[in-house]
Structures are given as structure tokens and as C-alpha cells.
Amino acid sequence: MSDSTGQSALDTFPRLLMHHARVRPNRPAMREKEYGIWQTYSWAQVAENVRAIACGLAELGFKRGDRLAIIGDNRPRLYWSVAACQCLGGIPVMLYQDAVAQEMAYVLQDAEIKFAVVEDQEQVDKMLEIHPEVPFLEHVIYDDPRGMRHYTQTLLKGLDELQEMGRIHDRNQSDFLNGEIDKGASDDISVMLYTSGTTGKPKGVCQTHGAFIAAAQGGAQFDRLSEQEDILSYLPMAWVGDHLFSFAQAMVAGFTINCPESGETVMTDLREIGPTYYFAPPRVFEGLLTQVMIRMEDAGWIKRKIFHHFMDVARRCGAEILDGKPVSGADRFQYWLGSMFVYGPLKNVLGMSRIRVAYTAGAAIGPDLFRFYRSIGINLKQLYGQTETCAYVCLQPDGQIKLDSVGKPAPQVEVKLADNGEILVKGPMLLKAYYKRPDATAESINADGYFMTGDAGFFDEDGHLKIIDRAKDVGKLTDGSMFAPNYIENKLKFFQHIKEAVAFGNGRDFVTAFINIDLEAVGNWAERKGMAYSGYTDLAQQGAVYELIRDGIEKVNAELASDPMMSASQIKRFLVLHKELDADDGELTRTRKVRRNFISERYAVLIEALYEGRKEQYIETPVKYEDGREGKIAATLRIEEAKTFPARGARQAA
Predict the structure, then answer these.
(1) What is the arithmetic mean of pLDDT over 179-199?
(2) Which residues belong to any copy of the AMP-dependent synthetase/ligase domain (predicted)?
């Protein structure tokens, strides 16, 4: 926080926005890449645009407490619509832009949405498709007018037209909006974010201005964030992580949000912006590393030799140099050379040359993946939190990074463990309620006011929290040993050829797994070997691919053998699925978390085959295509064994 005047009054997002417009009117608040050119908006321009949208909504009849759906990619005008809604005392409700129309219908009905601001023609079409099911939806306002010329539905309106109405309204009633902002209170609901729904229907999490501002201030102080930061906002606006990093923290610290041109241009835009502060879930870091490794395999042998030599140096001492720990002079010199020839150019290719702080969260990250980024000098850290805690529970302090922990409780947060190992948290960032679900709210917060996260974990000797798995997913094998599927799956997904994994074993004699190959990585490998294949299903069932996957599984088994808690969880049998697990088919959530119960039911015949010792199994699976058509994928899947290892003593932490 760089300005202390009137600090106590800055307890809602609209007040913070107007404060920045006064204090740093000409500093860049947002940039957007359009038609290949970066457009910059100052804080004063953002405030003016937000005023126009807010007054336009008021002119249409938007009232305090109304909900406004916001659907689309990260666009300045969608973020402005969030702030405009808050100015009027309304509640913005962000939806995942890639959700199919039916999934959106559920949220629109549950949140009783009357107004929606959407990005473009694609989202307008979804609104029109489900309108008969959500008759109380009165206004759909679109940002991008391309393709909208022949739409005549009366509920549609362009955002340009809405802003023009708003500017007229503001001129005629110039004190109206300031009066509405003055009515706002810290305890008002500032946003409603829906849970990912891994176990049932998503729930609307109501968070207050005070909760998100407390989380944003805590994080900004912890990592010394200032108005000078640049962040790339490319993760779904409906995800709590984006709302904390790209909205709440920007509003608190006054830094710049950069919106990429499209999902396809994120890597290019990342390089052009060179963010100082970066956030991505593990799958993004996994994907970047896979691309790097594919490119290296295609390089000449001299380049490959240099790369692998200096990566060995980085693994040996890079993380220690980053943490300021003692390292020998010879290693320091080797690392300096590595920075010139490998790490510097690599960070440049990844768009990470200017990064001061990078975070990952949303799922556990493999220690090896984590160490890779830290070893090349990127200050990657883990955080832990939920939608219900504004994504703010634990943070890793600089210089105290452990590869297998999520750090220490964040400022103002109290964390303790229940008798069964469940993580309980308390602090100013807790949800106010689940929308219209007093039963669920009461179930999630115990008598002492602690939110029950549903995650199982423990504190190590330094007070760092380690997450094992979802408490409900932690089971036991028949011999009584602990079975934590997520822990095993994350180890498997570190291998560049494995995109997704689902482990089974609760109540069973041994552990088995479904594997999804990474089509790009395995395809590249197959082409170099001169293997012919006609698509994913064909490639997935080839003997050489099974050998490749078996090799990865056996490396994981060797690691598990040296972990006293998990040595019984080595994978004995596995198969490679004939299709990629997909959110559109209900197998993953929109945040790419595995929906275990659904998968167990849908693929029961395959699980049975794994445990009955069969060598192959035929299956037909219904699928939904992107154009809405439905079909079936049928295949006879091979089932193979993997080598397991005798349990060894406790291994030293990495």
C-alpha cells in the first residue's frame, strides 16, 4: 500500500477504485491486446468507464442486491462490469466461459440472474439457448459486437450503447453514483463464485469486500507488491485465484492487469509483457515444461548436451542459490555460465525474465516440477486456499521454500488440525455464506468458527503445512496402509508423457491406475521413432507407448517405496484410456479436477478388469463433441503390469 491517507475508509472495491483514480490517475491500470496492438487504460479512464457501465445498468433498472452474471475471457470491460456492479451494491457472479449452456443454466437459475454481461456472439448464443429455462433473465449485454448485426431479440444490448446511456444518466444525476458507492459497506457481498462441484452441484460462495480486501492486503504485504507490478490475467474470471490476483490485489496495490488477445496467444503475450508477478495452476507449469522438453528433443545433439549439462548444474545448486544458501565457488561459476547459455534464454522463451514472485495453487505440484522452475532462478512458490477462503490460507515465505509443503499460515490466518487430520482455518477471509444454502454454511463452519476445508494434512517440524489429499479421498488398502490417490496422481503427472491419471485402491489389495497420455508429447516422441498412428485412441494402445508409460510408473513406484507412509501404494496394474478425460463429458470439473465418483461409475467395467487380472477389456464410451453432437468411442484396451519395489527406509526431503 503506497498511500495511507483515508486508508480506513478504503473498505470496498469501488472506494479503492476511485482512490486510485484520484491518487494515480495516469498510471496504467489495464492493458488489452487487440488486433496485435496493446491498448492501455489509466486508472482515471477505468474509473470513467466503470461509472458509465454502472449508471447504464441503473438506467436499465439494476438495483442493490441484484446479481449480474459475467461470462467471457479476461477482458477489461468484463472486469469493469464487476466493479460497476459493486458500485451499485450488486453482486457479480462469474461463470466459466467454456461451460456448456446447460451448466450455465444451473448457475443462472440458482443465482436468480436478471442481468448478464457477456463477451461475444458465442456467449450470447448460449444465453438465448437457455433463456426459456431462465425466464427471469431480462437483459443480456454484449461486449464484442462482431456477428451481432442481425440479432433482433429485445433482451440484447451492446455494451457501447449501455455506456452511452450511462454517461447521459451520469450527466443528468451527477451525484447518483457517488451516493450509491457511499452506501456500500465492508460486510456487503462483493462477489459470488461457484465451487467446482467435484462431489455434487456447485454452490455459490458469497464473499464480502472485507474478506477479499483482507486476503489481498495480506498477500501484498507478504510479497511486498507495489503499483509497479505487471500481471497477465488469462485464467478464468470465475476462478477464485484470478479474482484474488487479477482483481482484488490489483485494486489494493494499484498494479497493472494485462489481458491477452486470446487463449492461443497467451505465450506470445506473456513474453511481450514480461510480468513481474505471475500465477498459474500446476497444469500450466507442466504444459510449459513439456513444450520445452519437446523442443529440446528436436534440437541438435550439441544443444541437447549443453542443455542437459547445465540442467544438472541447476538441479544441484540452483534452488540453493535462489534461496541465498551457501554454494561452492565452482558450482556458482558453472551456474553463472548456465544463466548465460541456458537459464536466461529459457526464461526469456517462457516470458519469465522479469518475474519477482510466481505462485502456483489449485492442486498439488510435483516436487520435481517445482524444483525445475526454482533451479533456473524463477521464484516459484506455492499457496494454499479455497474459494471459501478467498484462495488465502498458507503462503511460502522467501528463503523458506520446501518442495513438498504449502508454507506457513498467511498473515491474520489461523490453521489447526482436527483429530482426523482435517485442516481447519479461521480468519477475516472466510465466506459469509453459501448462497441460499444455510444448511451447507452451517455444515462447513464448526462451533468454534473454523472453516472445515475437507483437506487432510499435517505440520512438519518447522511449522509448514503439508497437504496429503482430500480428506474424503484418503482411504485404506485392505492391509490397513494409507491410500491417497491425489498424491500418487500428481507424481505420475510430472512425466511429460502423462497428462492425466486416476488411481484406485481404497478397500482393495493393491493400487491400479488409468492413464491419459499427452497427445502432443507422445505424438512427437512417436514421430521421431517413425511410428504411424491415426489419432489418440490408436496411439494410446500401441505397445511402445505402454512401455513408455510403464517406465514412468515404475519410477514413481521406486519413489513410493522409499516413503514409509506410501510404500504400499505402488501401482501394480494399469491401462491407458482410449479417450482423454474431458470436462464436457463430466469426467473433470472446469478447473480440471478429477470427478472420482463419476469416473468410477462410468468406467466400472475397466476397474473390474484391472482387479480381476484380465489382459484386455472392450469398452464403449459416449462422448460430446465441441459442436454439440454426441457419439461413441469404442476400443479394446490392453491391461499391463508394472514392477513394484520392496519398501525402503524414510528418504531425506528434497
Answers:
(1) 90
(2) 19-435
